[in-house]
Amino acid sequence: MNKEKLRSIIVLNGENQNVLSLFMGITPQSFSGKINERNGAEFTQSEIKLIKDRYNLTAEEVDEIFFSHFVS
């Protein structure tokens, strides 16, 4: 996961992780665990879709953010 890219998109849209986590219906602690991939935590497909729709991300941006570790 490219957490730096996700964080930059959040900031460029005038928000922070707390705002996004509340929009998504998860706690800020849960969001933090997922963005930092703590203990294997990952965003679900529905959470990725919420983020994609909120920030009008392209399919390429979604791939870069959430699936970058799958590409070698």
Characterise this structure.
By secondary structure, this protein is mainly α. The chain has a single domain, classed as Orthogonal Bundle (434 Repressor (Amino-terminal Domain)). Helix content is 61%, strand content 0%. It has helices at 3-12, 17-24, 28-35, 45-54, 59-66. α2 crosses α3. The longest helix has 10 residues, at 3-12. The chain is globular. The model has no long low-confidence stretch (mean pLDDT 94).
Tag the structure with descriptive keywords.
72 residues, mainly alpha, 61% helix, globular, XRE family transcriptional regulator
In short:
This is XRE family transcriptional regulator. With about 70 residues, the chain is an all-alpha fold. It has one domain: 434 Repressor (Amino-terminal Domain).
CATH architecture descriptor name: Orthogonal Bundle
CATH topology: 434 Repressor (Amino-terminal Domain)
End-to-end separation in angstroms reads 13 Å
How would you classify the quaternary structure?
single chain
Number of helices: 5
β-sheet strand percentage:
under 5%
Mean pLDDT across every amino acid position: 94
Domain unit count:
1
pLDDT below 50 for ≥5 consecutive residues: which ranges?
A: none
User: How many β-strand stretches?
Assistant: 0
Please state the overall shape, judged from the principal axes of the Cα atoms: globular
Query: CATH class, anyone?
Result: Mainly Alpha
Spell out the helices and strands N to C. Answer: HHHHH
Task: Work out the radius of gyration.
Answer: 11 Å
Largest sheet: none
What share of residues is helical? 55-70%
Structural class: mainly alpha
Organism: Enterococcus hirae
Protein name: XRE family transcriptional regulator
